[in-house]
């Protein structure tokens, strides 16, 4: 059967077997709409709920939209003890048989705090916010010719071993310029790490239509006064959450970062293998 150029492009970019799709549909032929519907079902996040913004937030959203260039993006910073993640990364690397990056280690704790979060969302109109059930995290990858943000889907539901395999594959294909269109759709949140460039902390730009993005600076040693052990040398990193002020305030962002700190502190690979 002859397909249009547009249909062939979709089948190639999303690696869809036309014959398998026909069997799935119980049809002798497929249309472009059939393929698009299949792509939405497989690659786009499932909606958990659609929330009406309160009149106060709606009014605030209208005002902030008018001053977008200066008022919408707001960033909160928090320095977090990352010793638990670093220690777990060594053990996970031994288990998986490969080096595990700090960025990868952040995926599960971040996905946990994003579940049901107002920041795992999209503002679809002035008074309507869609909060996603799936946690699909886009990771910023520097290719040498620019930044790309491929997506790791359903991070909250999957095991570390499965996620690691996909993470390595996606990063490798990004650096080899072999990503396809399917690798860029359906993200609900973005994670970007500039620690490897010796950056302590930074502000980042939200990746539309998402409503927030998390930045991570370099891991560094600091002497910290702890309630339990007094002065202690530990490895920390500064996290920066940039969020859309139309959908949330500073208190909600602060709670998000505090929850992330708590999940990092309690993280154990045994619970996710």
Brief summary:
The chain is an alpha+beta fold and 273 residues long. It contains nine helices and twelve strands.
Structural class: alpha+beta
- Using only C-alpha atoms, the radius of gyration works out to 21 Å
- Secondary structure tally: strands: 12
Task: State the separation between the terminal residues, measured CA to CA.
Answer: 44 Å
- Overall tally of domains: 2
Give the ordered list of helices and strands.
HHHEHHEHHEEEEEEHEEEEH
Assigned CATH architecture of the largest domain: 2-Layer Sandwich
What general form does the structure show? globular
Number of helices: 9
* Share of helical residues: 25-40%
Topology at a glance:
Blueprint: H1 5-13, H2 18-25, H3 32-43, E1 47-52, H4 55-66, H5 68-71, E2 73-81, H6 83-96, H7 102-114, E3 121-125, E4 128-132, E5 137-139, E6 141-142, E7 147-148, E8 151-152, H8 160-175, E9 189-193, E10 212-216, E11 220-226, E12 230-244, H9 250-266
Parallel strand pairs: 5-9, 9-10
Antiparallel strand pairs: 1-4, 2-12, 3-4, 5-8, 6-7, 10-12, 11-12
């Amino acid at each position: 059967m002859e397909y249009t150029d547009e249909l062939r492009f979709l089948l190639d970019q999303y690696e869809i077997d036309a014959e398998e799709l026909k069997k799935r549909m119980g049809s002798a032929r497929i249309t472009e709409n059939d393929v698009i519907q299949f792509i939405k079902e497989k690659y786009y996040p499932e909606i958990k709920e659609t929330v009406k913004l309160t009149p106060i937030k709606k009014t605030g959203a209208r005002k902030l939209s008018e001053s977008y260039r200066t008022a919408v993006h707001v960033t909160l910073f928090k320095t977090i003890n990352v010793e638990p993640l670093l220690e777990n990364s060594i053990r996970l690397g031994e288990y998986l048989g490969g080096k595990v990056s700090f960025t990868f280690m952040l995926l599960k704790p971040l996905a946990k705090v994003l579940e049901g979060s107002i920041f795992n969302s999209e503002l679809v109109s002035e008074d309507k916010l869609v909060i996603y059930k799936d946690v699909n995290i886009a990771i910023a990858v520097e290719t040498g010719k620019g930044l790309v943000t491929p997506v790791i889907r359903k991070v909250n539901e999957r095991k570390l071993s499965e996620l690691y395999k996909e993470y390595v594959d996606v990063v490798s294909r990004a650096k080899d310029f072999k990503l396809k269109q399917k690798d860029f759709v359906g993200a609900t949140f973005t994670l970007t790490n500039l620690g490897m460039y010796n950056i302590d902390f930074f502000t980042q730009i939200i990746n539309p239509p998402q409503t927030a993005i998390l930045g991570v600076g370099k891991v560094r040693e600091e002497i910290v006064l702890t309630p339990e052990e007094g002065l202690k040398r530990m490895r920390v990193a500064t996290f920066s959450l940039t969020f859309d002020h139309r959908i949330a305030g500073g208190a909600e962002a602060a709670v998000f970062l505090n929850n992330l700190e708590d999940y990092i502190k309690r993280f154990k690979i045994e619970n996710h293998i």
